[in-house]
Amino acid sequence: MYLPTIHQSQQQLQKALSDIYDPEEAKAIGQIVLEYLTEMSRLSLQLNKNQSLTAEQFQELNQIIPRLLQKEPVQYVLGEADFYGLKLKVNPSVLIPRQETEELVHWIVESISTDFPKQVDTLQILDIGVGSGCISLALKNEVPYAQITSIDVSEKALQIAQENSDKLQLPILLRQIDVLNRTLWDLLPKFDIIVSNPPYICESEKDLMDENVVAHEPALALFVQDTDPLIFYKTIADLALLKLPKNGLLFFEVSAHFGEDCRKMLENKGFQARLKKDINGNARMIQATFPK
Length: 292
Hints:
Number of strands: 11
CATH topology of the largest domain: Rossmann fold
Low-confidence stretches: none
CATH superfamily of the largest domain: Vaccinia Virus protein VP39
Helix content: 40-55%
Mean pLDDT: 91
CATH architecture of the largest domain: 3-Layer(aba) Sandwich
Radius of gyration: 21 Å
CATH class of the largest domain: Alpha Beta
Number of domains: 2
Strand content: 15-25%
């Protein structure tokens, strides 16, 4: 039985994907797939590029390629995504973690070391819209003494987050709560930090988005009505007014289109808010301080 080498397989996959992705993205996807199949690092793949795939690896590759050619995101095809040094289970019930969200986590970790350096064993964090658990679990990994409560309206998302928590042995408290339902707020205690990456893409923007995102990722976690694009931010800000102490911090990932609007909204509610740019120069993160 003919079995291609790692290099040949990577080239074959990249060529197949070049019809639907730009060359750089096709190359990146091919890299991710071969790392997954061989359980090798990027460097090891290069050093062993002339090694043949096993029969099992070759068979799995042939099952993966048709799904990728249907523009199914590679993370869903493989069932996993990398985030802040963690490998997380993902499926279409949860968003695929993004680099911008890693930058938000990094900002929170830096802020904890600056603003809460001595608050060992008492630091309480609330993550609203936990999804795969990426933010909560990355924070728990970086700040082990933090007590993290993670909520989501989606039962399926909470199941994935629980699986990731168990697999990584990073305990977080998961609860099914719709933050837009203000009658449920009494179920939540006080927190030192609240973070959220809520839905923020307007329905009217669907036609401008990549087909693989719209077709495969959960609309519940992506879209808001055009009539009130800041609905989650305004609601969570009101929650923060009730649940944060005077030195508490509120963090948001925001749309580049509405970052300034969100900052002004927070300041109108009495917060001191700072908008921060991501690595690509887009204003995508906000830190707000509870009014003193």
